[in-house]
Amino acid sequence: MSKNLLLGVTGGIAAYKACELVSLAVKSGWTVEVVLTANATRFVGPATFAGLTGRPAHTDLFGDAMAHIQLAKWADVAVIAPLSANVLASLACGIADDLLTTTWMAIPRGRPCVLAPAMNTEMWFHPVVQRNIGWIDALGRYSWVAPTEKRLACGDVGVGGLADVPDILAAAESALSPPTSR
After folding, report:
1. Is the preceding omega at residue 82 within 30 degrees of 0, hence cis?
2. What is the DSSP code string of 123-137?
3. Are strands 31-36 and 113-117 parallel, antiparallel or unpaired?
4. Any idea which residues carry the catalytic annotation?
5. Among 4, 49, 64, 127, which residue has the least CB neighbours within 10 Å?
6. pTM, to two decimals
7. Which helix (H) or strand (E) holds 77?
8. Nearest to 21 by CA among 36, 37, 32
9. SS3 3
């Protein structure tokens, strides 16, 4: 059984933890492709992910006209970690204006998609973000790995930290496994 993990990385300080997620996934037998937003590349470069996966990281919607379709079909599980408030809003509203959001819009129905948000506590609890979470939940296409409560990069303490990397990978593994019948 293949274990193809498509990882979306968005902009935010937690993007560095995506490197740890890729490393752990590869060690666990996953083949990983990484799609970065332009803002993510300001925190971690594509070369880092290429080195960890042995595959080029994807950043440009127009570099290969069909990359978003090919990546979407290739994935057994799609994870966005970290998921920023900006990309969360794009997913909720159906905005596909970069390679990451276009790829996620092309993921076949029924394919598992896991979202692991990370943002400041006030951003996380903002009514618009909470509304967007509700809209995404209503779609029935995504599962969540909830942010944790901790000291955030900004110095605040509260909910919004990226979930622990092993928990994110466990969610991907769980999404890949068919439910057991009793």
Report:
1. yes
2. HHT-HHHHHHHHHHH
3. unpaired
4. 154
5. 127
6. 0.94
7. strand 77-83
8. 32
9. coil
Per-residue pLDDT of the chain (182 residues; tens, 9 = 90+): 679 999 999 999 999 999 999 999 999 999 999 999 999 999 999 999 999 999 999 999 888 778 899 999 999 999 999 999 999 999 999 999 999 999 999 999 999 999 999 999 888 999 999 999 999 999 999 999 999 888 878 788 878 889 999 999 999 999 987 665 55
The first and second tokens of residue 113, run together, are: 């998609």
Distance CA 7, CA 33 (A): 6
Sorted by where each begins, the domain ranges of the chain are: 9-76+95-109, 112-149+159-182
Q: Which residue has the tokens 């127009």?
A: 62
| CATH T-level fold of 9-76+95-109 | Rossmann fold (3.40.50)
